[in-house]
């Protein structure tokens, strides 16, 4: 994360900037049907429970998530998560989390 949209600090005697130790959220890309890249109007972004969360709008079907050139999730990874409602990046854990419509979730570390 080097675009100055979010900075993370850790207190261990003194404050330490740990932003560069985390995934750069600006490198996340979301893809729908036919590998068409979703736009920022297809989702909202918020920080929830120490996670940077992308909540997809109703009717938007995210099929794949990439971090730079690396594929971090795709709809064929797990039948129960062929459609997801949100994608989160743990700010402390550096793990990815996907949630489907009923609210079930599965975590994938990176």
From TrEMBL:
Which Pfam families did the record assign? FAINT (PF04385)
Taxonomy, superkingdom:
Eukaryota
Query: How is this protein named in the record?
Result: SfiI-subtelomeric related protein family member, putative
